[in-house]
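Handoff note, outgoing to incoming analyst
You'll be picking up this chain. Sequence as last confirmed:
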Amino acid sequence: MSANVLFDAPGPKTAARHRAYAIVTAVALVAVLAWVIYRFNEKGQFESSKWEVFVTPDYVRVLLVDGLLKTLQMAATAIIGAVAFGVVFGVGKLSDHAWVRVPSALVVEFFRAVPVLLLMVFTWYWLGINADNSSYWAVVLALTAYNGAVLAEVLRAGINAVPKGQSEAAYAIGMRKNQVMRLVQMPQAVKIMLPAIISQCIVALKDTALGIYVLAPGLTYVARQIYLDPQFNNRVPTMFVVAVLYVSVNLLLTLLATWLQKRYAGEKKIDLAAARGPRNPER
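Most recent structure output, in case you need it:
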């Protein structure tokens, strides 16, 4: 009954047409996939010599330790910094004092507008391209600034989404503004914006791939060293393996986001049988 209120249920002709669309789309996707596989096979991309590197222990260790581990390390550092950045400037944008609110808004809007790659390049030159670990910190600082600016807006929107009655009740019992923000609004805002925070973590992880342009360590840097080796010359297989690693980590982050949302956002499954109560066998 409630579902029919939201939209008109499709009739037999519409349902048949939708099934036909789904079949045509599936056939088209299978045809494209088959054509891609055929072309790869024709170009010799499935030869064992191009994939042998990914079962060689030394290269696997380099790919996982120097590649994946460094990527996760850069992403984790940037995410921690971005959360701190977002809290400071997100709360700053909500300040009643113009001398705090205006500079915070300018900082957030500036770092949201500048592309991440340009931030990496500028930061790399600012730190010194020949300095130790300058490439690593160029990626971390650029991702911290960009994602922190986005999280600042997410935090501001989350706080504004908290019902005003919550803060008004807190003020009525004598709480100060910083107490209302810290004890009432912020915890509820975090629950609201939790999916967006995890999504931004995934964005930060993927954007570490841009570190190859500033010679930062990571998956793309190690992959470039592998496929440029004349011994392998396996650009497509290498990119495929790197893509699988990125997708796998992102799927794990998605599962984490789902678990956190259910754990901390108060989503609980309802046992309908228990809600109805015990059945009366005499009826």
